[in-house]
Amino acid sequence: MKKWVPAASGLLAGFLAATVFFADLSPAQRSEASNDTNKSNAEKVYVPFGEKDEYYLFASGGHSGQMFIYGVPSMRHIRTVPVFSKDSATGYGWDTHSKEMLGDYTWGDLHHPAFSEKDGDYDGKYMFATDVGNSRAALMNLETFTVKDIINVPNTSGPHCAAFVTSNTEYMFLPTRFAVPIGREYASLDEYSEKYRGVMSAVTFDDKKEKLNIAYQVALPPWSYDLSDAGKKVSADWAVMTTYNTEEATTNLEINASQADRDYIVLFNWKELEKMIKDGQYDEVTGQKMIFPEKHKGGIYLVPVAKSPHGVDVTPDGKRFIASGKLAPAMTVFSFEKAFEAIKKEDFAGERNGIPVLKYESVMEKEVNPENALGPLHTQFDEKGMAYTTMFISSEIVKWDPNTGETLDRVPVQYSPGHSVAAEGDTVDPDGKYLIALNKIAKDSYLSVGPSHPESMQLIDLSGKKMEVIQSSPVNPEPHYAQMIKADKIKTISVYPKDENNPDAVYSQDQTKIVRKGNEVHVYGIAMRSKFIFDAKVERPDQIEVNEGDKVVIHLTNIDFDQDITHGFAINGYDLNIEVQPGQTNTIEFTADKAGTFPIYCTNFCSALHQEMTGYFLVKPKK
Amino acid sequence: MKKWVPAASGLLAGFLAATVFFADLSPAQRSEASNDTNKSNAEKVYVPFGEKDEYYLFASGGHSGQMFIYGVPSMRHIRTVPVFSKDSATGYGWDTHSKEMLGDYTWGDLHHPAFSEKDGDYDGKYMFATDVGNSRAALMNLETFTVKDIINVPNTSGPHCAAFVTSNTEYMFLPTRFAVPIGREYASLDEYSEKYRGVMSAVTFDDKKEKLNIAYQVALPPWSYDLSDAGKKVSADWAVMTTYNTEEATTNLEINASQADRDYIVLFNWKELEKMIKDGQYDEVTGQKMIFPEKHKGGIYLVPVAKSPHGVDVTPDGKRFIASGKLAPAMTVFSFEKAFEAIKKEDFAGERNGIPVLKYESVMEKEVNPENALGPLHTQFDEKGMAYTTMFISSEIVKWDPNTGETLDRVPVQYSPGHSVAAEGDTVDPDGKYLIALNKIAKDSYLSVGPSHPESMQLIDLSGKKMEVIQSSPVNPEPHYAQMIKADKIKTISVYPKDENNPDAVYSQDQTKIVRKGNEVHVYGIAMRSKFIFDAKVERPDQIEVNEGDKVVIHLTNIDFDQDITHGFAINGYDLNIEVQPGQTNTIEFTADKAGTFPIYCTNFCSALHQEMTGYFLVKPKK
Questions:
Q1: pLDDT at position B22, please?
Q2: How many CB pairs under 8 A join A and B?
Q3: Phi, psi at residue B71, to the nearest 5°?
Q4: pLDDT tens digits, residue range A296-352?
Q5: 8 Å CB contact of B53 and A186
Q6: Which of B107, B540, B562 to mutate to test the interface with A (most CBs of A within 10 A)?
């Protein structure tokens, strides 16, 4: 086997050297290096008022817990949509529905977003996302850009990345980044190999109910599972996932998880796993249907790969998958056809933890080694099937041909790109045109905001002969992955339709009421330009009076059926805020635990008399 | 008195008509109207990699609770700095210091940001901000872009806007937006005029300790106090604030607070108030030194103004202040000199709530009435002292000359501008060049993100003969005000210096330790590329093991003294995340209330081996 992976210590020195090298360039030199036709670049990214961006970019917000929505090519940040963390701007985490979805958790670490697909193409209907911080998955509706469901993923610790979705959104596969004992029980790290497992979850989606569901789980070996991708076309029944720490080290992974020359790609056939579940080939563990590969045989294989890989990416034609050791100078092209052939022939190099291991040479098609390129992390594709790989250590994007292995172009980015995203890049039919490098380090690219800098996204024009960085955009921490979709695929609604069957909704002043039930006060109110009406029949319709200790439930309907007229509802000093979008009914529940006088006001500027859109919440003290 | 204020009902109809008018224009028409030289506009706003923006824009984040930092002219969003709401991306609200600062509150409504000043000019050292949601004030240090202090403002309900700061940052004045009973006790709205008050707080700032302090309060009448400004130069000892609801209505303010033709501007001499406090001319109420104007006479005056004014703005030369009824078609220019003269002569039109009322005619210099302009909210100034007023209802910026009253130029903005901000616009020495309209309504300006749209900021080039909108930028909810400062005035640090006197900090591996004290576990650890070391002396230095129920205190120091190398620290499943910026020591405290196995990981991508920067938090179950 060719020993092309240098020792980790040498690579770290190389990484540091590369960082210093770029840091030493003057701004002018870097500008010249990356961008010598400012004039045309300015035109390329400018979207004048009255025109719209061509693509939406959905970028994971990392430990912000949220999703960032951008327009491309302008790279303007249009909206942050709250997903796993509370967001006071939208009342997310305060209103009853979102509070229930978030449960006991106050934050998340949103890693990998994936659009729903039909026939391997983004259909623009839903977005899925995972939470590494508190092990959850979420579903976002793209008519409203709001989260509809969040599930906890048991036995899993950091579902780092879905296998994106399969070609018709049959499944989203959630591998675990960290191995933990099944049931998450306490177990000493001395018992790591025996008691810890790397559980992967197969999640399905009911689009009628807008609910996620765990169909089954697979108890893989106690390794770290990193990135993954679903097969396409000929490989549509399959998926691939990278692993690291197959050494099963329990401390100082920086050194100890880089000992073996090879880690593995997990290659599995989800149709076969589905059949195993149907046939009862699983154990019931912690309430989940769990496949133990050493016992329930079939459907799962290991492919050796250069150590510590990050991304694994299936080509648009579904024929190949590309992976790389992240400390390596090379990309490896694997062939699904060769893998299928080897599996058919049972051409295995033994087993690991009860899973058959395919021979590297039997599946590998070619190794691609651009000169001095270092740290390949992730690959995207254009309309011709050409590959674009981010090089974290040498800070560049390398364009190459997966058919020939030829390096076609290289462009420096600033600095240390983790992932990149191409227009419709994860579909069977990418658009080319644009690639965005998601850079981890900005250094002095932008005005300084203190010791912690923003991350940086750079927009690369793919339409010319040479790749060209045409815009650099700072971004809040921290995009780990993104998808870019044609703007016209997303069909939003502009107001919520009336729902006469909703018992909480009131659509006219005379329906408003405040109802007391024992120690509970239920308010059925409306928000409209420019007043609140909680009970139209009383002297002060914009006042709510309760007793200290009462449970208060406020249902509020925005009866301005008019695009962009959102109202907020806050009670000063009571630490709560919710929003009602046009036509929407929203609910907030809380206990009136502080006696006194608390003004109510609209938090979302709505009209010339917005400042007057107020009322009072009065809490009579206990005697 | 000239009756130039039409009835509110007519104005509302006008507002609606104006909205419909703009909504009916096609995108192309609007584009042509506002922007006929796209090519040059693209160039004007494009900042190529290697160059930097010319100005920082600090925009209030409204009910997001945070501050948004932008670069101008690129209008790129560089960073969201958390202030009044938790922010998981930076661990703000989880680490001990920020958690203590936020106290019991989980969100805020950040309205008005103000830079510290020296001689009436921004000095680039600090930023102040107020919270309308939970009545607080905050101090941000601009070396690090982090909040250093937050205070609760008692007796006040929604300190809507500081009087910005006085010319040498002697005071920030916080008027209340909503009147409440002093001490916030329960009182029926039937007793509004007797028991409710509109308390203003005078806040001082200790730059050595980086602490805010309430020097004294003033119990003004139970009105709503809206915007304010400090005097400059000749008026440097004075400040002005707008009021509305001087009708003292207690319900349906949309109608009832627009009954009287006039509300007031409160004009006060803070040097005189300071002297009154020194002389003991106050009552001690709820632990505060409180001036009751009806009893402690002097220093405060009322100036009649067109009803329901929003902004009041002092000209750069300090000679005039400009205010407008927000439902009116006119701006009124008032003269400080005339006001001083009238005060000297005691030329009053009686008193209101014990405060002398100046005669409108004695203080007013001129009324300026641009044809068909409606809804003047706020005025900024350029280097020649020319005024730029936002017209909420007619959706435009009007440029005019405060000396002559002449209208110089008008430009439509999309849509409904609340405030605007000019480069160094609140100083004695504005720059001109750029004005940014903070528009409340975006409608279809950007790719749709559902029924609730972003707000919109538009950059206006002031350098040509005509004002020109050169960029439109979506923004998260919701900028209410902003200040724009020359980039070179802000001097950030790039790493935190070593602090050998900090008992929580450790700077080398051999200093790391885990110390048990009864039921408390204290960890003194380090974060470095690419590992955590909590106790270097044990077998697994990146493991923390505790017993269920233990109190855990983790001090973590980032020993990568290298620009932009921030580490995160999260425990999967334990719902916590903090960050340590380069050189920084940070602390998190929590109770280990769940037994089991919980991976620790770095949340902020820091190196090629970031994925390996992990450990385990093991919690032994109670027997």
A1: 37
A2: 501
A3: -100, 140
A4: 999 999 999 999 999 999 999 999 999 999 988 899 999 999 999 999 999 999 999
A5: no
A6: B107
pLDDT in tens, B578-621: 999 999 999 999 999 999 999 999 999 999 999 999 999 999 99
Stated as kind and residue range, the H or E segment containing B22 is helix B8-24
Mutation choice for A interface testing from B26, B55, B448 by most A CBs within 10 A? B448
Mapping DSSP onto H, E and C, the string for B372-392 reads CCCCEEEEEECCCCCEEEEEC
Over range B468-488, report the average pLDDT: 97
Shortest CA gap B430–chain A (Å) = 21
Question: What region, left, alpha or beta, does residue B245 occupy, with left being phi > 0 and alpha being psi -120 to 50 degrees?
Answer: left
- Per-residue tokens: A56: 């939406």
Q: What is the pLDDT of residue A623?
A: 83
Residues of A in contact with B64 (CB under 8 A): 87-89
Q: Does CATH place domain B8-489 in 2.130.10.10?
A: yes
Q: Which residues of chain A have pLDDT under 50?
A: 1-38
Q: Chain A partners of B572 at a C-beta cutoff of 8 Å?
A: 132-135, 157-158, 178
Contact B570 A133 (CB under 8 A): yes
State the span(s) of chain B assigned CATH 2.130.10.10.
Answer: 8-489
Listed in sequence order, the residues at least 6 apart from A147 whose beta carbon sits closer than 8 Å to its beta carbon are A81, A82, A83, A92, A98, A101, A138, A139, A140, A141
In which element (H, E) is residue A363 found? helix A360-363
Inter-chain contact A251–B108, Cβ cutoff 8 Å?
Answer: no
Nearest CA in chain A to B327: A608
pLDDT digits (tens, 9 = 90+) for B419-433: 999 999 999 999 999
What is the rounded distance in angstroms from the CA atom of residue A183 to the CA atom of residue A251?
22
| Contact residues, chain B, for A568 at CB < 8 Å | 63
* Residue numbers in B near A452 (CB within 8 A): 90, 564, 566, 579, 581-582
- Min Cα separation B354/chain A (Å): 25
User: What pLDDT is stored for residue B40 in this prediction?
Assistant: 81
Cis peptide upstream of residue B451 (ω within 30 degrees of 0): no
B492–A81: do the CB atoms touch at under 8 Å?
A: no
How far apart are the C-alpha atoms of A601 and A577, rounded to whole Å? Answer: 10
- Average pLDDT score over residue span B556-573: 97
pLDDT in tens, B204-230: 999 999 999 999 999 999 999 999 999
What is the location of CATH 2.60.40.420 in chain B?
Answer: 509-620
Of all residues in chain A, the one with the smallest CA distance to B182 is: A597
**Least CB–CB distance from A135: residue in B573, B597, B619:** B573
User: What is the separation of C-alpha B288 from the centre of its chain, rounded to a whole number of angstroms?
Assistant: 24
Rounded distance, CA A147 to CA A165, Å?
18
pLDDT given for residue B161 in this prediction: 76
Q: Rounded to 5 degrees, what are φ and ψ at B97?
A: -65, -50
Looking at residue B4, its pLDDT comes to 33
Closest Cα of chain A to B453: distance in Å?
6
**B89 closest CB neighbour out of A477, A575, A597:** A477
CA nearest to A257 within chain B:
B612
Q: In terms of C-beta density within 10 A (0-12 exposed, 13-18 middle, 19 or more buried), how is residue B183 classed?
A: middle
Check CB contact under 8 Å for B450 and A46: no
Partner-chain contact A608 B449, CB within 8 Å: no
According to the model, what pLDDT value does residue B441 have?
94
Question: For the domain B509-620, what is the CATH code?
Answer: 2.60.40.420
Do the interacting molecules here have an ipTM over 0.90? yes
Q: What is the pLDDT of residues B393-418, one digit of tens each?
A: 999 999 999 999 999 999 999 999 99
Q: Which of A65, A78, A184 has the CB atom closest to B88's CB atom?
A: A65
